[in-house]
Amino acid sequence: MAAEWSERVAMEWYYAKHGKQEGPVPVGRLKELLDAGQVAPTDLVWREGMTEWLPAAQVGELTGAGVPVQSSMVGGGAPPQAGYEPPRHALSPHQQVPNYLVPSILVTIFCCWPLGIPAIVFAAKVDGLVSRGDMQGAMEASRKAKMWTWISFGSGILSIFLYVGFLLAMEGL
């Protein structure tokens, strides 16, 4: 499974269009974008294993020349040129991102529903982001779901204590 992950990541390409980094896209999709003119031959492209971003026209794998990226262009982690950073895969394929959907639903029902709704919204985003490969976005949505779950829980507990305190105060009058 680790070999499949490495092979899949190696086949994912990123490209820079109008100063914005796009991707990952499979090599076939990037070739389609090049053929359709949506990615110009002068636009920069990058995949894992390349030390720098290159114009698409200089990458044989994309131009149909059948010549893979030259070994002098492949290497470790030298930063790419033009201010674009290669994507960092924060998680290995064996790690999971917790979505906190069940706890967020429970605190929404039993504690504080107005503050539980954002927890459910963020929790629902996690799995979709993971399936698209956006691990950083998934981790951020997971963090926010956890935060709103705890805020809702704390608000519910605080409300209970305030209610009990109010009842005790009213009993003493």
Q: Which terms summarize this structure?
A:
single chain, 173 residues, alpha+beta, Dna Ligase, domain 1, 2 domains, 4-stranded antiparallel sheet, 6 helices, rod-shaped
Question: Please, could you describe this protein's structure?
Answer:
The chain is built from six helices and four strands. It has a four-stranded antiparallel beta sheet. It has helices at residues 2-10, 27-36, 60-63, 101-110, 113-131, 135-172, and strands at residues 12-17, 20-26, 44-47, 54-55. It is α+β, with helices and mostly antiparallel strands. A hairpin with a 6-residue loop joins strand 3 (44-47) and strand 4 (54-55). 52% of the residues lie in helices and 11% in strands. The relative contact order is 0.10.
